[in-house]
Design goal:
10 strands, wza like fold, elongated, Outer membrane lipoprotein wza fold like, single chain, 7 helices, alpha+beta
């Protein structure tokens, strides 16, 4: 009797400990005091990469003076210097950053923009335009194809596009419907391709608050976030997939046992 009580106590203790462990692993941003103790802040700046698509608008007080420096869809380079008659509602043409980091800009030719922030790119174009204009132009640069993908154990896996210049790992997960209760939060994988085409996988522990200080906290163009399922989820899916087989096997075993018992009577 005493042995049975001890066994029950051990089983209950094991369940309680495992329950606490699972609960702790399901929480985000634990030990947030590390952020309060940190004296080093960091402001993220989006950097232009190859294959980015940029929307660039140049404007001055005289529309005809700035017209040669931007094109719209359906308008070729030769006609860009003419007035935009009949094209007021047309969409601005995007500039694709090539593998070497250049864009082909009207009149100015090839400009290297890789590694620049949007503000730095604006300053570069503004400087290059100065000899062609009587006034300092207003230049606006925006990235039009900033996208990322979220896969795995989340509510809505898929590829998402945003107009924001910076997206955190948590914002990306929020757009994907957040992680499910069967996700591994302390080892989220981030697949990233750098400007040279090299791909690497980085591991993020979202249960710890210091993830906010990680250089991979902010996503970059074409990042892929993968959330792994827990072993319990994999095992449950495996069992569910083989449920009919197990039921058939159990039925056969029951029939054989019943038959054997009937013979021994």
């Amino acid at each position: 009797m005493k042995i049975r009580k001890v066994f029950c106590m051990l089983m209950l203790s094991t369940l309680l400990v495992s329950g606490c462990t699972s609960y702790q692993k399901s929480l985000y941003l634990q030990n947030e005091q590390v952020l309060n103790e940190s004296l080093q802040g960091q402001l993220y700046d989006f950097r232009i990469m190859p294959k980015d698509e940029l929307t660039i608008l140049v404007s001055t007080t005289d529309p005809e003076a700035s017209a040669p420096f931007y094109r719209k869809i359906g308008q070729n380079k030769e006609s860009s210097s003419n007035s935009n008659v009949g094209m007021d509602g047309a969409k601005l043409l995007v500039y694709l950053v090539d593998n070497q980091g250049y864009i082909d800009f009207p009149v100015l030719g090839n400009l290297k923009v890789m590694g620049l922030t949007n503000r730095e790119c604006e300053a570069l174009i503004r400087e290059k335009l100065q000899p062609y204009l009587k006034e300092v132009p207003n230049v606006t640069v925006r990235t039009s194809n900033y996208k990322f993908s979220v896969l795995g154990e989340v509510g809505k896996p898929g590829t998402y596009t945003t107009d924001a210049e910076k997206v955190t790992i948590f914002e990306a997960l929020a757009q994907a419907g957040d992680m499910t209760l069967f996700s591994v939060r302390d080892d989220v994988q981030l697949l990233r391709e750098d400007s040279t085409g090299i791909r690497r996988v980085y591991h993020l522990d979202l249960t710890q608050a210091n993830v906010a200080q990680s250089p991979y906290f902010y996503l970059q163009q074409n990042d892929v976030v993968y959330v792994k399922p827990t072993k319990a989820k994999v095992n449950s899916n495996t069992f569910s997939g083989n449920a009919s087989m197990w039921l058939t096997l159990l039925s056969v075993v029951t029939s054989i046992t019943t038959f054997v018992l009937a013979l021994t009577k």
